[in-house]
Amino acid sequence: MADFAHFSCPTSLRDYPHVILGHGGGGALSRDLIEGVFLPAFSNPLLDRLGDSTVLDMAGDLAGGGRLALSTDSYVVRPLFFPGGSIGELAVNGTVNDLAMSGAIPKVLTCGFILEEGLPIADLARVVERMAAAARKAGVRIVTGDTKVVERGHGDGVYINTSGLGVVPPEVMVGREPPRPGDAVLCSGTIGDHGMAIMSVREGLEFDAPIESDSAPLHGLVAAMLAACRDIRMLRDPTRGGVATSLNEMAAVGNVGIEIDEHAVPVNPHVAAACEILGLDPLLVANEGKLLAIVPAAAADRVLAALRAHEHGRQAVMLGRVVAEHPRLVVMKTRVGGTRVLPMPIGEQLPRIC
Amino acid sequence: MKHLAEYRDPETARRLAAEIGRIVTRPWAIMEVCGGQTHSIIRNGIDQLLPDEPGRRVEMIHGPGCPVCVTPLETIDKALAIAARPEVIFCSFGDMLRVPGSKENLFQVKGGGGDVRVVYSPLDAVKLAQRCPEREVVFLAIGFETTAPANAMAVKLAKEQGLTNFTMLVSHVLVPPAIEAIMRSPGHRVNAFLAAGHVCSVMGTWQYPPLAARFGVPIVVTGFEPLDLLEGIRRAVVQLEEGRAEVENAYSRVVSERGNEAAQRVIAEVFAPTDRAWRGIGTIPASGWRLSDAYRAFDAEQRFGVAGITAIESPLCKSGAVLQGTLKPDQCPAFGKECTPRTPLGATMVSSEGACAAYYNFRHG
Fold first, then answer.
1. Tell me: the pLDDT tens digits for A119-136?
2. What is the pTM of this model?
3. Domain co-membership, B114 together with B148
C-alpha cells in the first residue's frame, strides 16, 4: 500500500516534469531533486546533514561481540511497477534480505540512483516513496546516496543500487556447524510468485492471473527462527535462478547431497498455472520474500512452527533432507515416484516453443 | 490446475506402471516422437517406473520431435544474418535464442546490438510490425504441425492488413514423414511409437493408419502428463504383446480423428509441402512446409537474400543418431565433455526438450 504520510509535493520541480541531464550535474537542479524528492521521503538526522559521507556511531550495536554484516545489490527490474511492488521495495528488501541471511539485523542503507533522461519526476517520486515506506517497515534508515542521469535510451528509467550495513548479535552465528546428513531443508512459503508477477505484466503476456510479488523483508523471520534454534546451518534467499539455484549452491557449499520431495514444493495455483502456460519451472523462478534453511533434524519441527507463526512464513514447509549420497547434487523425488536431478540453470529460463 | 492434478495422481501412476510390468514378457523399444513427451518422461522419472530386467523390459527411445533440435544449422545461420541487420526486429520463441549456429547464437547477436526479441505468439510479432512501420519485423517460424496454425494465421493477418514490413523465416517440419524415415533407416530399433498428442490435435489421426500398416508398427496417440504417458506406453505394450500394429488414440480428450479442420484449412492456404533438412539427420522428402506461392512476399529468405547460406555441422556431434534412437545421449563420445549445455555442439544439448540436455540436466552425476 502506498503511504504518502511523509510525501511533500515537489513544487520546485514543477518546471521540470521529467528528469533532464542537468538533474545529475551536481548543481541547482540536483539540489532540487534532493530537496524535492529524496529528503522528504528519506529524511533522518544522519541523511539530513547532507555530508559527503555519513559517520555512524555503532559502538552500542557492537558492544559485547556484535559483528558487522555488509552487502550490496543492484536493481534493474522492468517494468518499474508491478503487482505487489516496485523497484523501490525490491531495492530495500533485497539488500535487507541479503543481510538477514547472515543472521544480521539491518541498520542502514546507502542508495545510488541512475536515472534515465526523460523519466517522469512523478514516477521517480513514487519509487522513492515506496522505498521509504519499505525502509520504515524494515526498520532501516537510508543514510547516504547519489544520483546520476544517463542519456535517454541508456537506461530503463531507474536503476538503483543499495548497500546495507547490519549487525550480527554476539550470540548469533549462522553456519557454526556445516550441514550434515539427516538435516532438514525448509522453505518459508510459496515459490515463484515474484518472477511470475513480473512476467504477468511484461509485454506480450496478457493473462490476467492475480499474481503478486512476494517482496518482503525477512530479518524478522530469521530472528524468529534463530530464537527457535541457534544452530541454523545455512540460510539462502532464492532470488534470481529460484529455489533450484539456491539448493544447488547450498549442496555445493556444504559439500552434501540434498533430496527434496516434489509434492512438498509449495506453489500458488495461479503461479503453477502461469508456469504451465509458458513452459517454465517454478523451481527456477525468482522470489523476493522467501528463504531456504538447513536446520538440524531435531529442531525442524520447532523452526517450522516459528516460521508458520510469522506473517512471512505462514505457508512454510519441509522440502526435504540433506543426504549422504550424491554430494553436491540436488535430487527430487517426483510426484509419480521417479527421481530426477534438479540442475543448476545455465542462464535465464527460456519459455519453451510448445 | 484441478484438471492437471488428475493426470499426475501418484496412486494411478503406480497402478499403471505395475500393470505394464505385469504384461511385458520381452524387451521392447518404444519411441516417443515429441520433445515435450521426452521432457515429461525425464522430468517425472517415468522411464524409471518401467520394467528393466534382462529379457523383459520397456526402453524409451527419444525421437526427433523437438523442433528446436531438428531446425537445420543453415536456418540458424540465416536467422543470425537477418537478426544482425540494423533495420530488423527479429522475433523468436525463447528457446531458439541459445541454439548455436556455425559461429554464434541469437543471444550473441543481441549482445552485439541486434534487436532480438522473445515473443510468446507470432501474432505479437504482427502487432509489433503494425506499431513499428519504419522497421522490418521478422518472425522465426519453426516447429511441427503444432505451431503451424498460429504461424499461418499470423501471415494471413499480415496480408489482410496489407503489412509490407512483416516476414517469416519458415522452417516447419512434419511428424509422419519423420516416422517413415526412421522406419526406413537401417539399424533402427523402434518397436512402437507414441505419436505426439498436440500434433494430432491439429492434424487428426487419419495420417497414421497407413504407416502402422506398412511398417507393422503400433502407433499410440499420447498426451504429455505422467498418466497420459503411462497409459500410452501401456497400450503400446499391450499391442506389441498381442502382435497387433494399429493406431490407437490414448489422448481422446484432446484429439479427434479429423483434427482441427479450420486450422488445417489455414495451413493449406499459407503453407506448401517441401523437402526439409533436419539437423543431424539430413534431408527428408516432403517433410516440411514452406510459404505457399500466394504468400511468397512474406518470405524472409527472399526479402533479405539469405537463401544462399549453407552450413556444415560439427563432426563430433552425434545428434542425428540420438534423434533416430540408435544412440543414447550418454553413449556419445562428446557427451558431457566437449558438449554440455553451456557449450553445446548440437541442438539436442540446447533445448530443454532436447534428449541430450534432458540427460545431462536430470541424470548426470
1. 999 999 999 999 999 999
2. 0.82
3. yes
DSSP 8-state code for residue A64: T
CB-based contact (8 Å) between B130 and chain A?
Answer: no
| Closest CB from A272, A335, A346 relative to B1 | A272
Are B199 and B244 members of one domain? Answer: yes
Does ipTM top 0.85?
Answer: no
Query: Is the domain A184-341 a CATH 3.40.1190.20 member?
Result: no
Cross-chain residue pair B1–A276, CB shorter than 8 Å: yes
A132: Cα separation from own chain's centroid: 16
**Residue B163, in any domain of the structure:** no
CB-closest option in A329, A336, A353 to B143: A353
What is the residue extent of each domain of chain A? 13-168, 184-341
Domain-embedded: residue B172: no
CATH number, domain with residue B20: 3.40.50.11750
Q: Distance, in angstroms, between B357 CA and closest chain A CA? A: 11
DSSP states of A125-186 as a string? HHHHHHHHHHHHHHT-EEEEEEEEEE-TTSSSSEEEEEEEEEEE-TT--TTSS---TT-EEE
B167 inside domain: no
Q: Does B278 touch chain A (CB under 8 A)?
A: no
Q: What is the largest CA-CA distance in chain A?
A: 67
DSSP letters spanning B217-265 = --EEEE-SSHHHHHHHHHHHHHHHHHT---EEES-TTT--SS--HHHHH
**Residue-wise pLDDT tens digits, A19-36:** 999 898 888 889 989 999
The three grid cell numbers given for residue B330, joined into one nine-digit string: 550418454
| A174-185 per-position pLDDT tens digit | 999 999 999 999
